[in-house]
Amino acid sequence: MAATPLTNPHTPLLQKTHQSHAFLKPKTTFHYGTSSKPFSISCSSTIQGRPSLRSHSQDRIFNFAAGPATLPENVLLKAQAELYNWRGSGMSVMEMSHRGKDFRSIIEKAEADLRALLNIPEDYAVLFLQGGATTQFASVPLNLCQPDDAVDYLVTGSWGDKAFKEAKKYCKPKVVWNGKSENYVRVPSFDGLELSPNAKYLHLCANETIYGVEFKNYPVPGNPNGVLVADMSSNFCSKPFDVTKFGLIYAGAQKNVGPSGVCIVIVRKYLIGNAQEITPGGLKEVEKKNERKAGVLYNAIDESKGFYRCPVEKSVRSLMNVPFTLEKSELEGEFLKEAEKEKMVQLKGHRSVGGMRASIYNAMSLAGVEKLVSFHEGFPGKAYLIHDSLYITAIVLLCLCTHFMFLLWFDFGRT
Ligand SMILES: Cc1ncc(COP(=O)(O)O)c(C=O)c1O
């Protein structure tokens, strides 16, 4: 790739490119992964031989952070050069449609490179996710087991401990070994481990970033149908490993393979699609829940025989804000007071409109809406029942009148 001439008005944003950097040289071929086949990836890095001090630019420091960590200079410079105009597209990657063909080619290449690098078989999916590795502490149990399922955790440091604590919210995890009492200085012998025979997975942190404890080989789950899950955040792509030993591997990118913001998950495809019911499933799922909640409330209003009214046309009724009025507006104050006693607040309509308004945003549970509906039905005990019984009385009177009329007419006919 040629260096971009820095002659545009935004030159100050683009630091000087160093002609001597590796990315300007021909592609380098690496031997990596468990595959014996060499392959090349174009985003090459100078890892051959002993790193020379001279290859380190004077305006860069040596950053020993545990992550976000130092990135290869040649990668930074290539990103810098491509940021202004990605391969003649006239825009940077940050401006492209994430569904467009340019971005797709970037992400597909990233996946293909990773598959080649780690020799990832076809029956594994590679996911580039947001939320950091921390999100996987919840995502793993949410996707791999049900609330009553047993799972095993090997705790060799504080990241493994955090993962275990998060799993407690979603299933029945057991710590099969904990190195805390020894200040996390070792990994246990696998022979003595009391692994659960029915655990859906065995979780470990392949490299505990804080304590510096790294697994050099891996245990096998106690359950022959269970899988091994590893948090590889801080040693991902630092050495070859056999992906097929694992059901799921996750790693925040910000240590060995990129900047922060991406978490890579490599997961056996058959493990996908069994998420617990409570797992957030994107906006389609959110919409379904909101439709259900709003449906329950609007139905109750519409079936109240006019006692409650929603003024909005049915086809455009909001799933978020449900305005309604009471047939007897003088009861509104009492409605609000009684609702508050029942721990339901902020039901007063906007001052410019009056009436009531129930805002049922995403976090409002169905239980909350159901409580409001049953309050609706019971409120105000008397008025609503009187209202209802008036209907019944009117119907009964009408029937009786008809009956008498009929009898009169019948008697009249006989005389
Ligand atoms: C081993 C390990 N797991 C998980 C995490 C959390 O990663 P993130 O910050 O991407 O959520 C870290 C962060 O340093 C880590 O070192």
TrEMBL record:
Pathway: Amino-acid biosynthesis; L-serine biosynthesis; L-serine from 3-phospho-D-glycerate: step 2/3. It is an enzyme of class 2 (transferase). It comes from the Eukaryota. GO terms for molecular function: O-phospho-L-serine:2-oxoglutarate aminotransferase activity; pyridoxal phosphate binding. GO terms for biological process: L-serine biosynthetic process. Its cofactor is pyridoxal 5'-phosphate. InterPro entries: Aminotrans_V_dom, Pser_aminoTfrase, PyrdxlP-dep_Trfase, PyrdxlP-dep_Trfase_major, PyrdxlP-dep_Trfase_small. The chain crosses the membrane at residues 390-410. Belongs to the class-V pyridoxal-phosphate-dependent aminotransferase family. SerC subfamily. This is phosphoserine transaminase. It comes from Hibiscus syriacus.
